[in-house]
Amino acid sequence: MVSDPHRSSSAALPKRLVALDRMRGFVVGLVVLHHAVLAYCSFGHVDRVHYALSTAPIVDPQTWIGFDLVVLINDGFFMPLLFSLSGLFVRDGLVREGPGAYLRARLIRLGLPFVAAELTLVPLAYYPSFLQAGGSPGFSGFWLATVTTGPWPSGPPWFIGVLLLFDAAAALGFVLAPGWWTGPSAEAPRLSRCFVGLVAATVLAFLPLLLVVGPRLWFALGPLAIQGSRVGLYAAYFAAGAWLGRGGGPAVAAFGQALAGRCGLRVALAVATGLTFVAASRLGAALHLPARPALALLGLTQALFCAAACFALPAVVLRVAGGRRPAWDSFAANGFAIYLLHYPVVTWTQYGLLGWRAGAVAKGLTTVAVALGASWAGGALLRRLPVIGRGL
Q: Which GO terms fall under molecular function for this chain's record (predicted)?
């Protein structure tokens, strides 16, 4: 799911659906931005022994600390937000189709694109990384080694594979505990209580695992991978979205209306917690804190910021997403395709710009523009094809 993955049929609430689609589109844009500027961060390094362990597929010697902040802030909230959006209409799909048909539909909608992307787009995206690390040219040999002996990096499609697992868990939960999925249809939400609950869930789901496994360990099975410290975090946000959607479309609409009501307060809280999160990322080294307390401080401030940002960004979009926005709607409609297609465009653009001495800012902005334009155009073209278009 990145662009209406559950194909919700709640036509009775078109404004809500438009706002949600536009919000997904905006977050997909953040994903592209994140990957486009990662090559130009000051903490980057190339691992010439194991290219997949480099900090990014392409690492440029020209850097800008502003991109460090962009990556830090983005990484603090945008994937949990995508998982929570993915959970919103799980209940509608399960009730409408039944768990068996729902899961079969998700296998087609998510499983097939995941396999196709991992076999084609991901090796294509990581080939320039292999070359930068000193690998011998020859894509066919690189592709064969990737899918047999590895390493086989997951790339952005990891999200789609993990989402499919969460959908399978939701279908099982629907069978075992059907009563959990029934909620009030349009009860006035108590946002302060919801926010406190989300903060508590974020801390409990994220901080213990972060302290146990650290921030860099990934659990992987072939090309399916997930950051170890975030397993509970992503599951919690998917479950939060599913919990909110228990009452169906009217409950989601009521929550959104209430959320947009005090937009300024939510933005202020997100900015305050975001600044605290950024400060915590520097404070450990500045105060010479031991590694574990420094990591605990960083994890706690990230949890607070994540919850605040996941309230603030939807509130802002719900406030400004009204009216006609043809370009935004087009981008949102192609969001799933853009999510799948952008990564090889990003890495090959970054690789091609390695010799350009224009500075990190110019390179980063160029990569963003090329990746957004090419993946948007490519997605729109692919969605016109009869068979492929139905899956995108």
A: acyltransferase activity, transferring groups other than amino-acyl groups
Question: 165: which 2 tokens?
Answer: 């697992």
Q: Quote the tokens at residue 73.
A: 């802030």
Sort 386 into a burial class: Cβ within 10 Å, 0-12 / 13-18 / 19+.
Answer: exposed
For CA atoms 185, 168, 115, 235, the dihedral sign is: positive
- Closest among 99, 108, 107, 244 to 171, alpha carbons compared: 99
pLDDT in tens, 272-319: 999 999 999 998 888 888 999 999 999 999 999 999 999 999 999 888
Residue with tokens 């790339």: 155
Average pLDDT over residues 88-113: 93
Nearest to 314 by CA among 261, 243, 351, 379: 261
For residue 12, is pLDDT > 70? no
- H or E segment to which residue 292 belongs: helix 291-320
Task: Report the distance separating Cα 363 and Cα 64, nearest Å.
Answer: 10
Q: Terminus-to-terminus CA distance in the chain, angstroms?
A: 10
- Which amino acid would we find at residue 235? A
The single-letter DSSP state of residue 353 is: T
Question: Token pair for residue 375?
Answer: 């993946």
Q: Is 339 helix (H, G, I), strand (E, B) or coil?
A: helix
Phi, psi of 214 (to 5 degrees): 80, 175
Name residue 219's beta-bridge partners. 226
Q: Does the structure show a pLDDT above 50 at 7? A: no
More confident site: 11 or 110: 110
CA distance 271 to 262: 15
| Residues with Cβ within 8 Å of residue 257, at least 6 apart in sequence | 318
pLDDT digits (tens, 9 = 90+) for 228-247: 999 999 999 999 999 998 88
Radius of gyration of the chain measured on its C-alpha atoms: 21
CA distance 23 to 256: 12
